[in-house]
Amino acid sequence: MTASRTAFEDRLREIGRQRYHDKHPFHHLLHSGGCTADQVRAWVINRFYYQASIPMKDAAFMSRVEDPALRRAWRSRIEDHDGTDAQDGGIERWLRLADAVGLDRDYVASKDGVLPATRFAVDAYVRFVRDKSLLEAVAASLTELFAPKIHAARIEGLLANYAFANERSLSYFKNRLVEAPKDVAFGLSWVLDYADTAEKQDAAAAALIFKTDVLWAQLDALHAAYVEPARRPPGAWDPGTYLRAHAAKAS
């Protein structure tokens, strides 16, 4: 039976209450100041792979959209991350964070040292948006419903606990406090309009669950590799190797 618009929205929001990655132990560690400098750096390196893939995901989505109005509405998401001639985007702001935590931004941008599980999870998301129905692709983006809360907590926690945190280094998160609500207002309305059967509502809910799994898997990989137990797979960023290589490069 098709749920009412209000009941379906409640269903989507409940997915976030139960499954969003703000509940992951790595975020609790990060926001409370419990991460070492190298654990913060590992998070910055791996999260960059996700940030850099977002405009590719959105471009893949737009390449399948025949409705000019939907393309116009979606286009700002790419500009928000890639930037424009007049304004920096989210990718550049994330590289400022990399600068602030003491990483070589060229190394971060190269995506070397990214955990395999991060690559698999993020690449799976890009493929999902490219290959699934437009409804499922938009529904997967609705984790933005829950993002402002985590960004606000992150800003507060990082400012309180880490010397690198300031207005410049945290500019990515401050901008998302404005960008995410704008994006999700459109996306949520679109999903509620087009998920007009029980089958479509189930597909949209499953897509949102998939996206929460993508985000959760990235933190699982970080926690396993850099927190406890520290088991880094071959090729992942290693603090000691990184420091030795960049010391030699600087000399």
TrEMBL record:
<dbReference type="Pfam" id="PF03070">
    <property type="entry name" value="TENA_THI-4"/>
</dbReference>
<comment type="similarity">
    <text>Belongs to the PqqC family.</text>
</comment>
<dbReference type="InterPro" id="IPR016084">
    <property type="entry name" value="Haem_Oase-like_multi-hlx"/>
</dbReference>
<keyword id="KW-0560">Oxidoreductase</keyword>
<dbReference type="InterPro" id="IPR039068">
    <property type="entry name" value="PqqC-like"/>
</dbReference>
<comment type="function">
    <text>Ring cyclization and eight-electron oxidation of 3a-(2-amino-2-carboxyethyl)-4,5-dioxo-4,5,6,7,8,9-hexahydroquinoline-7,9-dicarboxylic-acid to PQQ.</text>
</comment>
<protein>
    <recommendedName>
        <fullName>Pyrroloquinoline-quinone synthase</fullName>
        <ecNumber>1.3.3.11</ecNumber>
    </recommendedName>
</protein>
<dbReference type="InterPro" id="IPR004305">
    <property type="entry name" value="Thiaminase-2/PQQC"/>
</dbReference>
<dbReference type="GO" id="GO:0033732">
    <property type="term" value="F:pyrroloquinoline-quinone synthase activity"/>
</dbReference>
<dbReference type="GO" id="GO:0018189">
    <property type="term" value="P:pyrroloquinoline quinone biosynthetic process"/>
</dbReference>
<keyword id="KW-0884">PQQ biosynthesis</keyword>
<feature type="domain" description="Thiaminase-2/PQQC">
    <location>
        <begin position="10"/>
        <end position="220"/>
    </location>
</feature>
<dbReference type="InterPro" id="IPR011845">
    <property type="entry name" value="PqqC"/>
</dbReference>
<comment type="pathway">
    <text>Cofactor biosynthesis; pyrroloquinoline quinone biosynthesis.</text>
</comment>
